[in-house]
Amino acid sequence: MASREASCSMVEGLRSRVIEELSACNTVTAIFLADQLTHLSDYQLDDVILLVRALAGNGEHARALTLLRKRRLMRASPECKLLATRCMLELGQHEEVLEFVGEYPEVSLRDDVIEEEADGVEGDEKDAASVCASTKKGNTVRSALAHGDGHTDAAASLKFTKRQKSTVLVMAGTAYLLLDHRGKASKCLLDALLLDPCCFHAFQLLSEHRMLTAIQEKELKEKLLQANGEVEQYIATLYSSLTVRLFYDYCHCPLFFSLP
Questions:
Q1: C-beta of residue 97 within 8 angstroms of C-beta of residue 175
Q2: What is the pLDDT of residues 223-242, one digit of tens each?
Q3: Phi, then psi, of 163 in degrees rounded to 5
Q4: Region 101-115: what's the mean pLDDT?
Q5: Can you tell me the mean pLDDT for 110-120?
Q6: What is the Cα–Cα distance from 38 to 182, expressed in whole angstroms?
Q7: Helices 123-133 and 182-195, packing angle to 10 deg
Q8: CB 206 within 8 Å of CB 186
């Protein structure tokens, strides 16, 4: 009994220390301690997540992804899913990212996001609009749902917060962008921003890659201004005052811009 209590005390002590090391950005030490922790706790989910976070924080994404796969934890929780997706993205596994995201109906692309308007748009913008509009018919994310790999039941049981959904959509949008599918990337990023107006990463990608038409930009501002919450309203007002195109300049020299 005394030995069991000592073991529990050791596990709790190691767990607290790993969290402290991660907070202090001491990832190498955190990896070593978290590795010991997982062995002592018989690979409890929260402890494995700590080890994966430490590995990913140290740039060891291949090891982190291997650990999740080996322990069959890729779909164990929303956090595991986010970590696995991030690792695949960092490893350049862009197609795998889209297939993995496609297992999750809660974070797949919605049909009610801002519609692309091709009228009055010329050149590359019109091409991008037509590509983006065509995503309703069989994009990579939805095709993965239709041709599931046996994990859809586990995927459907996970509950994601809006912030988590937004994060996954940003990663999917990044994967599409790296695969040169600008229309699909734009749709993902718009969806992420509508789910969470504070998702600056989505707004930054949209602006830096000049992915919105004038019509899209106008509709986006109108929708964001309807956001709930004081913080969300403030951010939406900031976006509205700068606009996506001007925000490109803000990203490179923010001191020259301020709210009116």
A1: yes
A2: 877 777 788 878 877 777 76
A3: -65, -40
A4: 53
A5: 37
A6: 41
A7: 70
A8: yes
Tokens of 97: 């990212």
What are all long-range contacts of 29-32, with beta carbons under 8 Å and residues at least 24 apart? 30/54, 30/57, 31/55, 31/58, 31/60
DSSP state of 109: P
DSSP state of 119: T
Please choose, from the candidates 203, 150, 143, the residue with its C-alpha nearest in 3D space to the C-alpha of residue 173.
203
pLDDT in tens, 56-66: 999 999 999 99
Structure tokens at 13: 């002590």
How far from 79 is each of 147, 164, 167, CA to CA, in Å?
24, 8, 11
Q: What value, to the nearest 5°, has the Cα angle with vertex 193 and ends 242 and 112?
A: 120
pTM > 0.85: yes or no: no
User: Residues 161, 196: contact at Cβ < 8 Å?
Assistant: no
Nearest to 65 by CA among 78, 77, 51, 47: 51
Q: What is the C-alpha to C-alpha distance for residues 25 and 193, in angstroms, rounded to an integer?
A: 29
Which residue is listed with tokens 């990832």?
27
Amino acid at 228: N
Banded model confidence at residue 139, pLDDT cuts 50, 70, 90: very low
CB neighbour class for 72 (10 Å; exposed up to 12, middle 13-18, buried from 19): exposed
Q: Which two tokens stand for residue 1?
A: 């009994």
